[in-house]
Amino acid sequence: LTMYNKETVIRLNTFGMISGKFVGAASKCDFDIDLKYRQILIDAKSLLGVIGIGTNNDFKVCYMGDDQAFDNVVDKFTVA
Question: Which pTM does this prediction carry?
Answer without folding.
Answer: 0.89
